[in-house]
Amino acid sequence: MNELRHLVDPLDLSFEETLRLLDLADSIANDRTAFAHKCEGKILATLFYEPSTRTRLSFESAMMRLGGKVLGFASAQNSSASKGESVADTVRMVSCYSDIIAMRHNKEGAPRVAAQYARVPVINAGDGGHQHPTQTLSDLLTIRREKGRLNNLTIGLCGDLKFGRTVHSLIKSLVRWEGIRFVFISPEELHVPSYIIDEVVKPSGCEYKEVRTMDEVLPELDVLYMTRVQRERFFNEEDYIRLKDSFILDAEKMKLAPKDLIVLHPLPRINEIAVEVDDDPRAKYFVQAQNSVYVRMALILMLLNIEPGLFEEETVC
Amino acid sequence: MNELRHLVDPLDLSFEETLRLLDLADSIANDRTAFAHKCEGKILATLFYEPSTRTRLSFESAMMRLGGKVLGFASAQNSSASKGESVADTVRMVSCYSDIIAMRHNKEGAPRVAAQYARVPVINAGDGGHQHPTQTLSDLLTIRREKGRLNNLTIGLCGDLKFGRTVHSLIKSLVRWEGIRFVFISPEELHVPSYIIDEVVKPSGCEYKEVRTMDEVLPELDVLYMTRVQRERFFNEEDYIRLKDSFILDAEKMKLAPKDLIVLHPLPRINEIAVEVDDDPRAKYFVQAQNSVYVRMALILMLLNIEPGLFEEETVC
Amino acid sequence: MNELRHLVDPLDLSFEETLRLLDLADSIANDRTAFAHKCEGKILATLFYEPSTRTRLSFESAMMRLGGKVLGFASAQNSSASKGESVADTVRMVSCYSDIIAMRHNKEGAPRVAAQYARVPVINAGDGGHQHPTQTLSDLLTIRREKGRLNNLTIGLCGDLKFGRTVHSLIKSLVRWEGIRFVFISPEELHVPSYIIDEVVKPSGCEYKEVRTMDEVLPELDVLYMTRVQRERFFNEEDYIRLKDSFILDAEKMKLAPKDLIVLHPLPRINEIAVEVDDDPRAKYFVQAQNSVYVRMALILMLLNIEPGLFEEETVC
């Protein structure tokens, strides 16, 4: 009997398992109809204590594209949490109603608790400022499909590198590959936290540098990963106006970038990428949205053991 | 390859295309099971920035009756619009998750913008006070199924003819048929706008008249189309009380009407049709709700090109 | 032609029909895959004017496990009720969109009104403090599956016996079996209403007693049915603190109970059952959640006449 596996942290998957997942996602992208009935009779529960249309609809589309069905809630106000029920009790209940759970929660660690009590696999669909593993996997798939590799890449990460959870997760995952070089592009106030540098980047042996403007590094990048600079992170309005323009990508800046650069963004964007960039063939942020469905399809198949042989026996938890 | 078609305005369909759509809706109504698997593997996204249970559930039922699946949101508060995302970005994202989109939006023109950016067909499920084309198509189907024709009819339109978008859309569509005669029944304050008379009714050559009470014209009608008189349209409470009774249909008034009259209402009704009228065989407003599912089934099949040959090549946009 | 049947009150089913429903639920529990396609092409509408994640998701899971689909709304704010539509009009509309309706409403009697106007079967999914028949049927199924019988049982009901609707419904149903003995365990302020004693328990000939603490009766129970003691039922905070501990089940108290006791709770629990009890094999409240799906599957099959022969002809209403 296989033990139950969950995905709470992107590193819950070993390097080998991550590769197999990306391979499976590729197979799905290349022949979607071959997977159209794999989850018939299966139910995904989407428990979104915090609203997130993008992530929820991507998960729901993934399950439906596999032939499965979906139930759940889109915000906590319609959930039994409002009656004071614990996450542990809710997931034990929902384990009776579904075959796999995708949970988004405003509290860090809630999906880990859920995984302890659930009798079906639990996928973390984002917990507070903590982890968002399926976003990271979508990023990895997009880079690999667009660049042909995940090693030997210079990757610029731009914007709010202090609070942006997708950036931290992506760094932790990318250091598993050879020859990764990071360029951190952020205002002083939003630079990448020192624990990420000291505990993740340095021990991995990856090269890195920190800069304060996008222009100076654009020519050397293979990948530019943009993030939102949220107004509420700044202490005053002047700071915001002064700084945000250094971190906005437009057609003018794109002229500085290599022809084979790819531009990613976890979306939604507000104004950090000008809409004129959308027609540039190097803009891949809407391709990312498509890849997010393939990654989630692969993950559902993997956790439900419908595509067997994806997990390493020794890492079963 | 067929170009992508959308339905934002009822007149996006040519007269011939409208007839073919109504024919298909008829076929569905007559043999629903023949269409039960036509959309297997397809996903409809219902993006309702403004809540509308009736329209949303009708669309969802239509897709499910075709064997397809549904995802989406029922109000803007649970959507990424609350994070400041543009309609253009949202529909590009949702194009990755679904095969066809039904959008309701409080802003006029939003579905037209959506159609420009979507990579899948977009159906306008109502935009502000502007258009609601599937309501109009349901009205046309109901009239044709109940009266056997769409030409040579005297059609009374009663209630709020100034702000009621369903009425304006219906007028614009009906003038395409021969021998239509309009009777506009409304309080002075809510009469049909002059641009509708001058730009739509007069150029079509249709006969029309305007009256202030229902009683005087009931005997001559083939169709009575009732609408809500919304309290908030009036300047004061007295006006509301004085006027609303002239536009309420009850069993007493029904005695004045021909035996083969049909009564329609886009629903929900508040009190403009007394419940005692529901049992009158001439009341067809719940039949309309049923027909709305058939029309939406036909439209989904048409826009997804699952029932081919419905579009005129020369009008592909 | 069969007449339309609804389930508004648990007693809408005769004793014989209840037994057949429980038998069918057992069959489903024992071989779920045999029922996986029974409702293909059918649509359940979940009309939840009052949010209830647990009940809604259980119904949705039930329909999906039968191969059917689900549409609806999770709270009144997204429904046409907010536009002033009557329940009668809403269910006539929804009868056009679906094959069966599950309705939860904050007003007592709303599901009965719905059943009068609907053209499809209506299931009461809870109306105010009144009835919640599918909860009662889940309780009965769990007792029968865990104890092997529904007669000759001593059943302790603990907590808020005054306002708890699940308790009243359960009592009314259990008196139909032979040899039932009730032990009512509640604070004086929340004792079982006298009309339940006088009109239900006494006429049935069932033995009963009322006590004020759990400890004194635990050794004699076959079934302990726990309920929430809601803070807002008490006049002051001191009363609440003083009383609630007499009605909290913990590992210490479980030592007093027979080895073959079963503990039930309609959930959600707040703190009236300590989490340490969850690992006790006598704790069956999460099994109840699973059984609730089987009961609802059986009920849907019964009301849609997909499993024929379940209704007694003479009781068709």
UniProtKB/TrEMBL annotation, chains A, B, C:
PROSITE patterns: CARBAMOYLTRANSFERASE
Residues that hold L-aspartate according to the record: K83, R165, R228
E.C. number(s) listed in UniProt: 2.1.3.2
Amino-acid positions noted as binding carbamoyl phosphate in the UniProt annotation, renumbered to this chain: R54, T55, R104, H132, Q135, L267, P268
Catalytic activity: carbamoyl phosphate + L-aspartate = N-carbamoyl-L-aspartate + phosphate + H(+)
Cross-referenced HAMAP family: Asp_carb_tr
Protein name: Aspartate carbamoyltransferase
Lineage: Bacteria, Bacillati, Bacillota, Clostridia, Eubacteriales
